[in-house]
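Fold this sequence, please.
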Amino acid sequence: MMRAIAKRFSEGGFTLPELAIELDVEQDVLLERLFMMERLGFIVRSGGCNGSSHAEDAPCRCPGCSGCREPRGREVVGYTLTEKGKRLAGIKKREDL
């Protein structure tokens, strides 16, 4: 499941509830797996996007922010793949291409 999560993170543009549905798991199970991936160094958590890409009342769809489609006012957490996570997802470095 971690590889599937990493591959989906590399594509971006989804919320955690959407990812849970795609993976056919409960959100709690997905969150536990994300915490595990963070501890193992595959992802890092951030405060989400800076909101500059959308209007004040519009939801965001920034690709680097997996949970960033909530209306303003709700706490948003973004996840980014580390180099280790990119390897898990099968993303090759440019110099390897």
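The longest strand covers residues 43-46. The CA atoms of residues 5 and 83 lie 15 Å apart.
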